[in-house]
Amino acid sequence: MDSIKILTIISTIISFILTPFIKKFAVRVNAIDVPKDTRKIHKKPIPLLGGMAIYVSFLITMLLKDGKLAKSEIGILIGATIIVIGGLIDDLRDIRPWQKLLFQVSAAVTLILFGIEISVITNPFPSDSLFLKLGWLSIPITIFWVVGITNAINLIDGVDGLAAGVAFICSVTIFIIAVLNGRREAALLTAILSGAIFGFLPYNYNPASIFMGDTGAQLLGFLLSAISLMGTIKSATAFAIAVPILAFGLPIYDTLFAMIRRKINGKPIMQADRGHLHHRLLDMGLSQRQVVLIMYLTSAVLGGISIIAMQISTIRSYFLLTIVVLVIVLAAWKCGFFEHRE
């Protein structure tokens, strides 16, 4: 555990020191987010590419850890690099959604090639068999999970410090779960990631002087989705579905509601709108900081529930997930989250 603490501190320091240099580089290459429509919260141009500080910090710290990199760790680093390349291109030139998806799927397939996949899940039904083997379904399910979480984190990146802070809370949650499960590798990875995010947050919190851009938001989503496959495991190979779904609850539900909202209102699934939770809270007259703190608290509560789900029986964890989902959906319906807003 001492080595984990040291590596976390190193990761934090590297990210904190590197971010100002990344900011200068972003200005030099004209990687600037200029507000052009009503969905943009900021009023003046802000440099992008902040995610590079998180990526470099994570990469360097991983290379500094004791011993050789495990096969799974190499796969995660390669996949992360693929995501960062796609994110950089998007931040510099703007690429189409299908091109983003291509990079995301490639990174997910890389994880599978290096042995990181959802091959078995815990059985939610009374049975002699504790686990359900997925067989060939493990490939599409793993890809769906990785791509889904990658985009979910990216979609909530709409207010200063929101995506980075929520990702930090999710990372700490997975760290705690990994420690409780004795998954040292996953605990180490989330600790290093938490440090990298923490070092970046002072520059990204309102008023932000630099944004993560797609480079950072997609990177965080990818890393969290990949590490969660290693850390939220109750037994040798079983993936406890309820745990990570609760841990990543805020970005997952916000993304699902956006998809449902657009479908109900006859809008393209990929068409952006002002219906996300942070937009609605801002429209209620709350400040950016108030919105971020509310969403931090919500994410932390869901993270705490996921830790509880980890400690109880499989059937009870699925029941807990069902109750939470029903409450959130009902609340979203009452608050008009499925109504379209331009």
Q: What characterizes the major β-sheet?
A: 3 strands, mixed
Shape: globular
Total strands: the figure is 5
Give the proportion of residues in helices. Answer: 55-70%
Quaternary organisation of the protein chains: single chain
Order of strands across the main sheet: 4-3-5
Element-level helix/strand string? HEEHHHEEHHHHEHHHHH
Please tell me how large the radius of gyration is.
Answer: 19 Å
Could you list the spans in which at least 5 consecutive residues all have pLDDT below 50? Answer: 234-239
Proportion in β-strands? under 5%
Number of helices: 13
Q: Taking all residues together, what is the mean pLDDT?
A: 82
Structural class, by secondary structure, is mainly alpha
How many angstroms separate the termini? 49 Å
Keywords: Cell membrane, Membrane, Transferase, Transmembrane, Transmembrane helix
Protein name: MraY family glycosyltransferase
Subcellular location: Cell membrane
Main location: membrane
